[in-house]
């Protein structure tokens, strides 16, 4: 069995952020759900390297699914990145992670990023919003999703529209 540092090194060595090798290593890290993996992912999120921050976020977004043993600490890390990071790839990854976590406490961060100037970030927000609206749906979150459904970027608008019709 590979160690956490070995799996992280394997994931980072795949230069394609959507690469098969990267995601196989990341999936193994997800299944671990232990403190060591959480600690290493959190460390990556504080890196000067955007690639490392993205990997850290990708790990945290599904770490220990479905139990999510570190959800409170994970949300703190992700909300901090949502408010402070300026890398488009990191912000997009944070929003996708929020969507995977499905926790309404992420909603304020998602609403803030739904107005971002970059369509990649707005796309991430469109994905995340329908998963973090809560039950019943938060009115401000629903309004943000409706705005994104009229976005000038077709991919953003389509994903937001889908989020409006899905339960």
UniProtKB/TrEMBL annotation:
It comes from the Bacteria. Gene3D superfamilies: Leucine-rich Repeat Variant. InterPro entries: ARM-like, ARM-type_fold, PBS_lyase_HEAT. This is HEAT repeat domain-containing protein. The lineage of its organism: Bacteria, Bacillati, Actinomycetota, Actinomycetes, Streptosporangiales.
